[in-house]
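User: Thanks for the earlier help. One more: Alkaline shock response membrane anchor protein AmaP. Can you show the sequence and predicted structure together?

Assistant: Of course, both are below.
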Amino acid sequence: MSWIALFGSIIMLFIFFFSYSLTSPASPIIKVQPAMADTILHVLTSPVTYSYIIFVTSVSLSFDLIVKLLQRSLYRTIRDEVVSREFDVKQFNDLYYPLVKVKQIVTKASESALSLVNIQTKQRGYSFAQEDEPAISQSDVVRLYDSRMPKISKNR
């Protein structure tokens, strides 16, 4: 979305500048200084204009890319975890691992600085996960919902 907004604003700037500078100085509707007439030709032939557009575009989009990369690396959501595990490619882990370690170090340092107790976080996951010791084993869940067993009513 930021690509569309950035390039849209650049296009709108050129449309405004083009229409403003090509307006005749004698126009009864829009009064333009004589020095401003045909300025667009000088602007479009200047290399400074094109270098400015390239610089502003690259800085804006790289800032957006860095912010998104840091958000997805340091503050991973469950969706990000699932996507990285689905792809399960070494390059993803090589990219995320150093940033996750930095987050862990910063978190531990801030906890010790505030004299907080390191609270164990509750692990989340799916009940039928086959790796990393699932929270509930599949056999326990099947035993809970065995349809062959008679149902016990609570009214007794």
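User: Great, one quick takeaway?

Assistant: The two ends are 61 Å apart (CA to CA).
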